[in-house]
Specification:
CATH topology of the largest domain: Methylamine Dehydrogenase, Chain H
Bound molecules: [4Cu:2S] cluster, dinuclear copper ion
Number of helices: 11
CATH architecture of the largest domain: 7 Propeller
Number of strands: 44
Number of domains: 3
Length: 665
């Protein structure tokens, strides 16, 4: 595009931009001498960089002056990188990586410390330690249907796991593995007061998946599921022993929308592969992408989890115990009015409940519409027992025409929908590469309900999108980020694997406006965004000797003056302190074959006083944050001389912050 042509409409917009900048208090010097026009300095920058009025406006809207903070946090999935990345919005600056399923040596996570060893052990899948995960859906804890800034949850699709992050220190505290299912997906959402984390399976397997059953028995013996994990907020833990699971047909459970307000107590889970196809291409079976897309309609699962919870508490719900999990069979869920279905157009993906809880937007990858289900109509059909039949598992199917409110033709490849604070919905269009805005029942600007408003091209292959608070009862709106897969020509080329592209869009006005591109790493499936003021992270740990994993005083913390080495047979315990710029003790001598236990406490109270502990040739690096106490165990299996040193440049004498581990043969 020729930016010079766009310069034509410049003057008016520039004046507006200058005004906006003055309001922001930004660009103090550049704007100092304007009286109705632009300063020559500003004009020359705009010319030299060939900026259009839109560019200037976008720059001013996203600029966060040095020393100032962003207005929102965004927690974006890192996909196959196994982490969650934290961005400030609107600047889109990366402020933190939260490693969950994959190691991060900077933060001393997954490289030797006992804490991550314990977490990785909790997260064994099929008995094997996994050192990566595929994070799709971050979720924030909620109070009364809105984010409370306390906890973050993330699923690992590849291994059917969930990680729990405490947002006081932005560290993962728990990884749980669902022993029934190999994979998960819709485990994305929290119930209104974080009573449960809701995890849906993705691919059908026998229950448990560790039992061999040939694929020929797919329909008979493979199953899907949804597991409700109670969240103990005081402990910051999901409670595996108190979970309940509802067995589901072996359709592939995809995304789930949590009921809100009027629909609180319900969850609406998409499925695809109602065909129950299974693969065997060498034997001439149709490939899955064809076999699983035969039917015009799939099934939306409509689940009354609140009733299941109540009946379970009263002992009125039958369940089987499989792998230590309480599993409610399909027949029982149907008999007790917990499980219903409704048809939904071809290969659906997103299922998103409106802020008032009245409607559920479902979009099919192979259908050009978004379909809006009415919770009220669903309730009426259930009350009247008005079914259009049952599926092969005996689950009643509500008549499609009776339970939908509207269908909006949005275009090709609609995936996910979020909502703003003004009565509009935004749907990501994978095939069209756009974000499409459409009206709900009561749009603030008085447009026709259920109608298309605007389509904004994005670059490219958008998957999810996120609006600030867009899946809560009270969205903040203002910003939307389109989470695109591969940036192609949008950033400096870096080889055949392209960076992802997060595009920030201003949705505060009647028309959406693209503000910026941010290349990122790892596939950004979903993200959640919330005002910065909700979060109260610690600056240092509350006490000296704090264990980040347990959230309590560490039993092995070392206070200054109490440093020592204790030997018990082959076990050598080293109680060490770290303070600028010294480790005490700084000499550790052991015999080959000894088991070494280091207990390192950072006794600093200053904010900028993290010490690293890097031990040569042992695959160990720790991050010992102010107040934290960290343990690491290893066997001194080779003789030699191994320097250890502080791996954070913590002071002028940081280079001297070192010591030796010597291992005698
Ligand atoms: S999914 Cu990735 S774009 Cu796993 Cu939520 Cu839709
Ligand atoms: Cu401590 Cu460098």
């Amino acid at each position: 595009m020729d930016k010079r042509i766009r310069m034509a409409g410049y003057t008016l917009a520039a004046a507006a931009a200058v005004f906006a900048a003055a309001q922001l208090g930004a660009g103090k010097k550049l704007f100092a001498q304007i009286g109705g026009g632009l300063s020559p300095a500003l004009e020359s920058i705009i010319k030299a960089r060939e900026l259009s009025p839109d560019d200037v406006e976008a720059a001013l809207k996203t600029f966060v002056p040095p020393g100032s903070y962003d207005e929102f946090y965004m927690f974006a999935s890192g996909g196959q990188a196994g982490n969650v990345e934290v961005f400030g919005v609107p600047s889109m600056r990366l402020v933190k990586n939260i490693p969950i399923f994959s190691p991060d040596s900077w933060q001393g996570y997954g490289v030797g410390d006992d804490e991550s060893k314990r977490l990785f052990a909790q997260g064994k899948a099929g008995g094997m330690t996994q050192t990566w995960g595929d994070v799709h859906h971050p979720a924030l804890s909620q109070t009364n249907g809105t984010y409370d800034g306390q906890f973050l949850f993330a699923n690992d699709k590849a291994n059917g796991r969930i990680g729990v992050v405490d947002l006081r220190d932005f560290r993962v505290k728990q990884i749980v593995k669902n022993p029934l299912t190999a994979t998960n997906h819709c485990g994305a959402k929290m119930t209104e007061n974080s009573e449960y984390y809701v995890e849906g399976a993705q691919f059908g397997t026998p229950l448990p998946f560790t039992k061999y059953v040939p694929l020929e028995r797919y329909k008979e013996e493979y199953r899907g599921l949804v597991t409700f994990w109670p969240f103990n907020r005081a402990e910051g833990k999901l409670e595996q022993s108190k979970t309940f699971t509802i067995e589901l047909p072996p359709y592939y459970q995809d995304l789930g929308g949590m009921g809100k307000k009027v629909s609180n107590g319900w969850v609406f889970i998409n499925t695809y592969n109602a065909e129950m196809a299974w693969p065997d291409d060498l034997k001439g079976k149709a490939p899955m992408e064809i076999a699983a897309s035969q039917r015009e309609m799939d099934f939306l699962h409509i689940i009354h989890w609140k009733r299941a919870e109540e009946l379970l508490a009263k002992g009125q719900l039958k369940y089987k115990t499989i792998s230590g999990m309480r599993v409610i069979p399909i027949e029982e869920a149907v008999a007790k009015g917990i499980l219903y279905e409704a048809g939904e157009p071809k290969s659906p993906h997103g299922s998103d409940v409106t802020p008032d809880g009245s409607f559920i937007t479902v979009s099919g990858k192979l259908d050009p519409h978004v379909t809006i289900f009415s919770f009220d109509k669903i309730q009426k059909a259930i009350a009247a027992k008005k079914y259009e039949g049952k599926d092969e598992f005996g689950i009643p199917i509500l008549p499609f025409k009776d339970v939908i409110e509207a269908q909006v033709e949005v275009g090709l490849g609609p995936l996910h929908t979020e909502y703003d604070d003004k009565g509009y919905a935004y749907t990501s269009m994978f095939l069209d590469s756009s974000i499409n805005k459409w009206s709900l029942d009561k749009p603030a600007n008085g447009e026709k309900p259920w109608s298309m408003i605007q389509s904004l091209p994005v670059h490219y292959n958008t998957g999810h999108l996120v609006v600030a608070g867009g899946d809560t009862v009270k969205p903040w709106g203002h910003y939307l980020v389109s989470l695109n897969k591969w940036s192609l020509d949008r950033a400096l080329p870096v080889g055949p694997l392209h960076p992802q592209n997060l595009q920030l869009i201003d949705i505060s006005g009647p028309q959406m406006k693209l503000l910026s591109d941010t290349p990122a790493v790892g596939e950004p499936h979903y993200a959640v965004m919330a005002p910065a003021k909700l979060f109260k992270p610690w600056k240092v740990y509350p006490d000296v000797g704090y264990s980040a994993l347990t959230g309590k005083a560490s039993a092995t913390a070392t206070l200054p003056g109490k440093e020592r080495v204790e030997r018990k047979g082959k076990d050598v315990h080293v109680f060490m302190t770290a303070i600028r710029s010294h480790f005490t003790p700084d000499r550790i001598e052991v015999n080959q074959g000894d088991k070494v236990h280091l207990h390192i406490t950072n006794v600093e109270r200053a904010e900028d006083a993290t010490h690293g502990f890097a031990l040569s040739a042992h695959n160990i690096n720790l991050s010992v944050d102010p107040g934290a106490s960290v343990d690491v165990d290893f066997t001194a299996d080779r003789s030699g001389v191994f320097p250890f040193y502080c791996s954070e440049f913590c002071s002028a004498l940081h280079m001297e912050m070192m010591g030796y581990l010597t291992v005698k043969k």
